[in-house]
Amino acid sequence: MGRRRRRGSGVRWLGHYSSAQSILVVGDGDFSFSLALAAAFGSGENIVATSLGSYEALICKYSKAETNVMKVERRGATVLHRINANNMSGHTYLKFRQFDRIVFNFPHAGFKGKEEDMRMVNSHRKLVKGFFGNARRLLQPYGEIHISHKMGYPYDAWDLKRLASESFLDMIRIVGFHKHDYPGYNQKKGDGPRCNEPFYLGVSCTFKFCLMYSY
């Protein structure tokens, strides 16, 4: 069961996130992660949840996306589609906002080869580096950027710490990612004919980053 905690008057927590934080969720698959947060908080008014593709593409790919989006919006969250992690800081809505937490769970550049191929590793690195460069522009001075990521070979080769440093971000900690902390969250493959199926998480962690010198 998820870690629903209360810290302070009226503040609700789930995992690393609270109802007192402004939260941007990037590339949320079928929006089940944003829904888990909004349900735990009792409101989604502090959440902006995004997808890479259009709404039409989203509901075609994921069986529960239409219902999840509806539930998230009913709880007051802002839902945005066609948000690319590599240029999101220029989006009409986002460019005037700053967030306490920016979350990108299991970024992936698509299935264009075997994960261990350097061409694929470099493609993933390019995606993450672009995300870091954009996310830092949308981050509050003492906010955090979180990437949940699989551990071990070949995922360690992405070298998230170095990519973050190149965008003037410091890694402040790595903590274990446990799916059961976010009830209802369902990680999706997101690409190809099996896009609606979950991928194997194995050992995964959340990497936390901040602006250099902000801590």
Brief overview, please?
With 215 residues, the protein is an alpha/beta fold. Helix content is 24%, strand content 25%. InterPro entries: BMT5-like, SAM-dependent_MTases_sf.
Give an overview in words.
Pfam families: BMT5-like. The model has no long low-confidence stretch (mean pLDDT 94). With 215 residues, the protein is an alpha/beta fold. Strand 7 (99-105), helix 4 (118-135) and strand 8 form a beta-alpha-beta unit. The chain has a 7-stranded mixed beta sheet, with helices on both faces. The protein has helices at residues 32-41, 55-61, 65-74, 118-135, 160-166, and strands at 4-6, 12-14, 17-18, 23-26, 47-50, 78-80, 99-105, 139-150, 169-176, 204-211. It has 5 helices and 10 strands, in the order E-E-E-E-H-E-H-H-E-E-H-E-H-E-E.
